[in-house]
Write a structure and sequence with these properties.
The protein is mostly helical. It has 25 helices and two strands. Strand 1 and strand 2 form a beta hairpin. The termini are far apart. This is BCCT family transporter.
């Protein structure tokens, strides 16, 4: 009689929101096309910047200096706040009840094995950064320690040098990637939305605004941040390749003309890669690159000061952990010297990671389908950081050891592009190692431009995982142009041009990062898994209290119809749009269509195209998979 009396509320597809198993992006029906507003605004702004930078570099430099000075004076605190808030928020999220929610449908197994997933995260932590900053950054802190810390070239400065480097490249950096990656993966593989940054905000902005100007603005910010962040990485690669050319050729110095020529040659390689469909070959080269990079670090460890490194590495990690809160507390309030240091280093890195987060985030989202939020967040934050601690400890420790032994010569200031080549000059096989280093950097340049351009193509085609090749090539060429302008702005100190523009263009997306936290948590509160947890806790609590009160120890639980307002879901309006709108299935035109969640059948008989679509998606996943990983490495 209870079942006869019960009148089921009206739910989409006649399924309660707590029972929806989730929706994957490939379960949905959507028509992809170029978003003319996103492509037009982002394209016009960036092309205009490149033209301005080439025609009037002095004018661009003057405006950039003013904007950079204002940003550092007024918004340096924002970058420090974002880095701290993101890390703390994700650690809380990982250990909360939301940590068990899968980034996929209920019962879905991870797409990649744990070993493969860890290997790709390892790959994402290696690249140009290890080759460029790995030796030079710790050496810089050893010779000129951060203000108000230690005496130059002291034992304390040695360990703090590694700790400061780890601070810039460790948990905070990867937390930013994990935030974007986790939110994108949740939206795409749990809620069935497109692989767009704007998809994260549907619950916060509403569907109309998310698919309208607000979502388009977010995607434009993501494209601009990615363009300048990736261009900075390409610029760093060019600086170091150019230094290698100087050493191998015996030229006196690296000129602007030589840098532009290097960018042009490597950009041709990227265009060939993008239009010829040789992405698998590029991927294999990238994988070889990772092996070579790891092998290079291993060679330094064996041929360099091995015993010294064995003692230094664990000490450096413990110094990082012990001084983490002290480093997090430093800001402009510590004085002008600290402000100058933060401008050149800490804030620059936070801005760089923010700029890279759309690119790297989408990559790690695509390899993490099926993992729980807890597995994802802890894995992404801890695993690549651990690898970088080892790699940077080896590179930086070797550079410091050689400097103390007088093998790097006298230096008042460290020139980052030169340190690596000065190191290998003191090792066996020093004749061919510079050529090997330049080859590694060149491949990283091509794969960085290739994969980052694909991601920007996705953002400009409403989430298509196979954007048109012309759009991919367009973004790659614009990226190369921005790299040229960045290097020209820096003049004799090209790194300054890279740093200032990365910090300026990352400001809008820094605010987006904070909104992502709010939007993602709001989504998780209405997740089917969360609803089931709420019902379970309420039902068990109420039943236990009632059972003990009525029957002492002799009671058991059973499911029966409760009076309205007295059941497990008494505090939940399960018919509210917050819980039901997201799983209403639609056709390609956005019109509601019937769907049977039990059988997976559409009411109008539509079936997914499992042949060409799957093949294309798989190929694209390959293309922006390990390639994308190395690109993160390209910046790191």
């Amino acid at each position: 009689m209870r079942s006869i009396d019960y009148a089921r509320p009206k739910y989409p597809h006649d399924i309660h929101p707590a029972l929806v198993p989730g929706i994957a992006i490939d379960d949905q029906r959507r028509r992809y096309s170029v978003d003319k507003l996103v492509f037009g605004v982002a394209g016009v702004l960036t092309v205009a910047f490149v033209i301005w930078g080439i025609v009037d570099p002095a004018g661009v430099g003057e405006v950039a200096d003013i904007a950079y000075g204002w940003t550092m004076a007024h918004l340096g605190w924002l970058f420090n706040a974002v880095a701290t808030v993101v890390l703390v928020a994700l650690l809380i999220l990982a250990f909360s009840r939301y940590g068990k929610i899968p980034l996929g449908k209920d019962g879905e197994k991870p797409e990649f094995s744990t070993f493969s997933w860890v290997a790709m995260l390892f790959a994402a932590g290696l690249g140009i950064g290890v080759m460029f900053w790995g030796p030079s950054e710790p050496l810089t802190y050893f010779i000129t320690p951060p203000p108000l810390t230690n005496d130059p070239e002291s034992v304390e400065a040695l360990h703090q040098a590694l700790a400061q480097t780890y601070y810039h490249w460790g948990f905070h950096a990867w937390a930013m990637y994990a935030l974007v990656g986790g939110a994108v993966a949740y939206a795409a593989y749990r809620r069935g939305r497109s692989l767009l940054m704007s998809s994260i905000f549907e619950r916060l902005f509403g569907k109309r605004l998310t698919e309208g100007w607000a979502g388009q603005l977010v995607d434009i910010f993501a494209i601009i941040a990615t363009l300048f962040g990736t261009a900075a990485a390409l610029g760093i690669a060019v600086l170091q390749i150019g230094q290698g050319v100087v050493i191998v050729s015996g030229a006196s110095e690296l000129t602007n003309t030589a840098m532009i020529l290097i960018i042009a040659v490597l950009s041709v390689g990227f265009v060939i890669s993008a239009v010829s469909g040789v992405s698998r070959g590029i991927r294999y080269l990238s994988n070889i690159n990772i092996v070579l990079t790891i092998g290079f670090a291993g060679m330094l460890f064996i041929l360099g000061p091995t015993l010294f490194l064995l003692n230094l590495l664990p000490s450096g990690v413990m110094q990082y952990i012990g001084s983490l809160f002290e480093m997090m507390a430093r800001s402009a309030s510590w004085g002008s010297d600290t402000l100058e240091f933060q401008s050149a280093w800490t804030v620059y890195y936070w801005a760089w990671w923010i700029s890279w987060s759309p690119f790297v985030g989408i990559f790690i989202a695509r390899i993490s389908r099926g993992r729980t939020i807890r597995q994802f967040l802890l894995g992404v934050i801890l695993i690549p950081s651990s690898l970088l601690f080892v790699a940077y400890g080896i590179m930086g420790g070797t550079a410091i050891s050689m400097y103390r032994d007088g093998k790097l010569g006298e230096m008042d200031s460290v020139k980052p592009a030169e340190v690596l080549f000065s190191m290998v000059a003191n090792l066996p096989f020093s004749g061919f190692l510079p050529i090997l280093i330049m080859a590694i950097l060149a491949i990283f340049f091509v794969t960085a431009a290739d994969s980052a351009s694909v991601v920007m193509g996705i953002l400009t085609t409403r989430g298509s995982q196979n954007p048109p090749k012309l759009i991919v090539v367009f973004w790659g060429i614009v990226m190369g142009g921005i790299a040229v302008v960045m290097l020209l702005l820096g003049g004799d100190t090209a790194l300054e041009g890279l740093q200032s523009l990365v910090i300026i263009t990352a400001v809008p997306f820094a605010l987006v990062m904070l909104l992502i936290i709010v939007a993602w948590v709001r989504e998780l509160r209405s997740d089917p898994h969360t609803l089931r947890q709420e019902y379970a806790e309420a039902a068990v609590s109420n039943a236990v209290v009632d059972g003990v009160d009525r029957y002492d120890d002799d009671f058991r639980l059973e499911v029966v119809k409760a009076e309205p307002g007295e059941g497990a879901g008494a505090g939940v309006d399960s018919t509210h749009a917050d819980y039901t709108d997201w799983y209403q299935r639609t056709d390609e035109d956005g019109e509601p269509v019937g769907f049977d969640f039990a059988t997976g059948e559409w009411a109008d008989g539509w079936e997914p195209e499992t042949d060409d679509t799957t093949a294309d998606d798989t190929d694209d996943t390959d293309r922006t998979g390990p390639d994308g990983a190395e690109q993160n490495g390209a910046r790191s």
